[in-house]
Design goal:
Elements (H helix, E strand, L loop, with lengths): L1 H11 L10 E2 L1 H8 L3 H10 L6 E4 L2 E5 H15 L6
Antiparallel strand pairs: 1-3, 2-3
Length: 84
């Protein structure tokens, strides 16, 4: 039953199981994005940064594909295309 519950939760959040999504801890997210901890949490609060997931009662992480998508969106926003 525990495995079925976990699989249902994963499918609910539409995570591609074949992608083998890694979980990044806060320090790795800071290093990858260049954002300080306060900006990460402020972004989560206002909906502009991916939400963390609980790993244990005292630890959290972020899904790597969600962080990568956020980075890609920031790059796209900073480099608008113009018609020639």
């Amino acid at each position: 039953m525990k495995k079925a519950f976990i699989m249902a939760a994963i499918n609910t959040h539409q995570i591609d199981l074949n992608a083998q999504a890694r979980i990044l801890r806060r320090k790795a997210v800071e290093d990858r994005t260049g954002l300080p901890r306060s900006s990460i949490y402020a972004g989560m609060a206002d909906g502009s940064f991916p939400k963390q997931i609980s790993l244990t009662a005292k630890s959290v992480g972020w899904l790597e594909p969600e962080v990568d998508a956020w980075i890609a969106a920031r790059v796209a926003a900073s480099r608008p295309t113009t018609a020639k």
